[in-house]
Amino acid sequence: MVRIAVLGCGRIGQMHAANIGRHPRTSLPVVYDIDAAAAAAVAGREGARVAASVEDVLASADVDAVLIASATPTHADYIEMAVDAGKPTLCEKPIDLGLARVEACRERIAGSSVPVQIGFNRRFDPGHRAARNAVLAGEIGDLHQVIITSRDPELPPRGYLEAAGGLLRDMTIHDFDLARYMLGEEPVEVFAVAGALIDPVLMGELDEIDTAMIVMRTASGTQCHINNSRTAVYGYDQRIELMGSTGMVQSGNRKPHEMRCYSAKSGEVAEPYLYFFIERYTEAFMAEIDSFVDAVEKGGEPEVSFEDGRRALILAEAAYVSIREKRLVQVSEIA
Amino acid sequence: MVRIAVLGCGRIGQMHAANIGRHPRTSLPVVYDIDAAAAAAVAGREGARVAASVEDVLASADVDAVLIASATPTHADYIEMAVDAGKPTLCEKPIDLGLARVEACRERIAGSSVPVQIGFNRRFDPGHRAARNAVLAGEIGDLHQVIITSRDPELPPRGYLEAAGGLLRDMTIHDFDLARYMLGEEPVEVFAVAGALIDPVLMGELDEIDTAMIVMRTASGTQCHINNSRTAVYGYDQRIELMGSTGMVQSGNRKPHEMRCYSAKSGEVAEPYLYFFIERYTEAFMAEIDSFVDAVEKGGEPEVSFEDGRRALILAEAAYVSIREKRLVQVSEIA
Amino acid sequence: MVRIAVLGCGRIGQMHAANIGRHPRTSLPVVYDIDAAAAAAVAGREGARVAASVEDVLASADVDAVLIASATPTHADYIEMAVDAGKPTLCEKPIDLGLARVEACRERIAGSSVPVQIGFNRRFDPGHRAARNAVLAGEIGDLHQVIITSRDPELPPRGYLEAAGGLLRDMTIHDFDLARYMLGEEPVEVFAVAGALIDPVLMGELDEIDTAMIVMRTASGTQCHINNSRTAVYGYDQRIELMGSTGMVQSGNRKPHEMRCYSAKSGEVAEPYLYFFIERYTEAFMAEIDSFVDAVEKGGEPEVSFEDGRRALILAEAAYVSIREKRLVQVSEIA
Amino acid sequence: MVRIAVLGCGRIGQMHAANIGRHPRTSLPVVYDIDAAAAAAVAGREGARVAASVEDVLASADVDAVLIASATPTHADYIEMAVDAGKPTLCEKPIDLGLARVEACRERIAGSSVPVQIGFNRRFDPGHRAARNAVLAGEIGDLHQVIITSRDPELPPRGYLEAAGGLLRDMTIHDFDLARYMLGEEPVEVFAVAGALIDPVLMGELDEIDTAMIVMRTASGTQCHINNSRTAVYGYDQRIELMGSTGMVQSGNRKPHEMRCYSAKSGEVAEPYLYFFIERYTEAFMAEIDSFVDAVEKGGEPEVSFEDGRRALILAEAAYVSIREKRLVQVSEIA
Questions:
Q1: Phi/psi zone of residue B283: left (φ > 0), alpha (ψ -120 to 50 degrees), beta?
Q2: Which of B237, C49, D208, D239 has the fewest CB atoms found within 10 Å of its own CB?
Q3: Total-model pTM
Q4: Hey, are the CB atoms on C144 and B229 less than 8 Å from each other?
């Protein structure tokens, strides 16, 4: 049993705390949040104790590893503290909203053998992973095109958007990581268009975008398209399509069950998709913990590394330059 | 938290013990099995203690209720003992393979207010339940026909078949219950045909059947068809279709994920279905416990009652008479 | 080019006349109807001439074969006349509503080598045929169960029902034929339940039924279920399921196109099915003509023979006895 | 009946000749091809006569309109001749491979009221049209994104590729037109990446590409993505997705029938898609003729105009500049 402390008890921290509690290979000794009441609530529900500080957590003898689910600006600091304390770390994405801070953190922890995993949960989705495995098994021959459809069910509240760092760093970052995972090589060119089509007034006030299309290309010529929307009213839409020389694979959306209704007015009606990431990626979040436990137990590079977190952010930066300057951007311009 | 003891630590008992351990409303204080080693293994894995006997379980102050997952011939005895001890009981199907023992048990516990629930888990499947709810909500008007497809993925081992009591009492009993649940009224007539089409030699030795079709009708005229096979090589096949005057609903099979492959040789290929009942009805087994906890906490008749267990067995007996005598059987002939 | 005359210019005759006109292997020299205006309308539209009588048609030098689409009571007479005239005949189902007349017709034409084909179009549906071919190719091993779902989109008008001869002779007759085709052997036992669930008042006045379930078994033990409804409000519902020892095949419904809509209120919505037999079985009706042309050109038994028409009617009669006497009926009791 | 002559008796001309012959509103009086034998073959099959020259066709009193299906370099010449002769014209795409010739033709026929329709058949596909109509009916609110997947089943022969004018002018031109139709407004910016991923050697010899991704944006900000491949081994892949503020619609691929097979080794297998454009767009080609007949009978602008043909070519030219110069191209740079 790997004893994992959770730092940050907001929505995603609560989910991780519950997952760690019921995962057969992990237990939850302690939680921490700057809001002590939030920490106490989670601790009570999950049978854990509350720590007084991050230092307190890292000094605890019954803590084998930490999961960072606190506010984004704390991520890099906590990673550094955890690595210093020798505690393997699973940190929610993004590492930081600024590439400079990511680079500094990278240098700071360079040389350490403490595993640092970034929370790109979608790689662990059974369908997405099976799609990637089909490529690795040669089932579609050479990979020619990757198409990622990624749309959230509704616009987050203004407060969330103000702190989120922008669509591409907050939401598309998952898709940049998934693109790299599916491509199996680095994109070298990025082109993006974006707009404020859903809520132009709010987006205007925030200098933000809500709808985007991206095209990337790798050195070997493989093409990748991502399309994003902040508001798919019909449900959280998460699809992968991999086109190859001898076949094609798709990983599609999940419904809560397989009931279909047929009537005179509407033909065949299927259930709406699972609402959002906690419901859609339930199995992925559990498998992510499993992968982290492997890294903790075996040491070495985790399946999703700090470098993966950094590369996804670099692609987001490249896409922002493309949008701003209305041109194709070489990833090498960024880093 | 309702503290539920598990009697019987075989395959289904192990599953229930794990479910009780991770269900947010229940805990597992103790387990029992006639094979002490089997009980010890489950107890160790789930953090419970081992009881020396059923009496020991029922006398324990930290046991609020019991789940009976032991061999079928013990079910009725344990139900009686648990009711005598005032412990609410969730008993795996069937109550007994013989109707006489069921009737005796029924008389023995008559008048008691201790909840006794029978483990017809399929009623709790989200898709099946949504289908039934669509009928109750009037979405398909008057119900005219119920079609239940129920096929196991492979023939059980000979030892299992020897003790199982026959296809209709072991496997179809679930479908008889589901038929009653979906119909919302009692079938009054039963006709069945059956054969040994999968393994005629083994079936001949066991005087058993492996493939069946049943037609039933209720007093109001609603029609119901069940088809069964012991070996659907393509996977556990569990479908419900409800045909009504203003619409139709279906509850279909679940796949582990939504990957589809497309190639020159095979067109579009979807994943196989979830293998068997533990995988297919995961959510249903958890919801069943939830329903049982409601019955324990609120008292009164559980959602799936002893009488439901008895009525399903009566339909199985009627179907056996139909097969033997090659005729339509009135349910009133049986009980 | 086979020159085919059409007898009967009602709905189905009009469809056949148009099909013969555009089929690459046939032409339409002449049409006939007791209602001369109806015949004239079709003749005008299709560029054919109008015959004064059936005798006139059969005496025409430019008529190689006839298609009988007139009222059911005329079928057997016209078959006999056409066979006497040496004209290969494609006759719409049923041969007659009474088995005695069918038997008389059978004796009358016995010994003739003039091809007589019965219009069981569904055998020619590409999906149904592919399903049967999968069985013949061994793709599902031994056939164990056949399930046929066959539901019309709406109740026909009273006048139609008064002349139709009853649900089983009018509508289910197609399913009896399809069952024999799919089974590849004769059913020997028939059990049926039926009711007036859709329009009890009208059905009561007509002594008719609108909803039925049938179970049949062949000598080798293969099981078959048919379920029928006169009113599937969600569309013409025509499905075949073939369950075997090593696999299963289904032939499903067709939609006019593959648009799907997704919205907040209804999840995923597919198009309604093609409305009724003329739309659903367009390709089947053309392939039926093709098969008839083969029989005309090569001589010998057509793919769907007079005997096929007779056997389907015998199954309908057996099912009526089963409904009336509430018992399992041996097909040998009928003929 | 509109009497339509066909110029050009290759693969697509043969299909059009047959369609005109069986369309209820048209007839085929005469065909022409520079290869007299090819013309004679079609004429024989369809019951038409052979013309000695295009001039001969245009001078014929029994020709109401012409369909141009000859080699691409003849299109603009024949359009001009037909317009001069006052014959409404349906011309296969593209008008010409060079924009200069298109512009010259445009000026030449400017001011004429003779209808000139371009053969962008996909607009007439029932599913694609229903998707567009759903947008027009407000079913998905404001249109935000259009995604077009368009992949041919196999690489055409070298000879075809040498004359085709390049992937974007030959194949993607359909998608550019469909994009404009679905968007309901003009793209103003085009970005494209392309490569030789399927057959790099042959593509290198021909200076050609076989795989492409395009992103476009309209003045109002609506985004559009097209992805193309010359070789989808799993079948002709033609999908449209329209994402809006209140919903999403998709128009998908068609299969020849709805058989599905289930087995131990492969789960659920559906039929391959219809092979190629003649099979996939059968209904669309017939509806295209219907629309052309409307234009002939009512006069005025056809549903798919000369200008539509010109605008699609302009988008192809813009995309070529984007590929060559690796930059975002303003459509206004081209024309």
A1: alpha
A2: C49
A3: 0.95
A4: yes
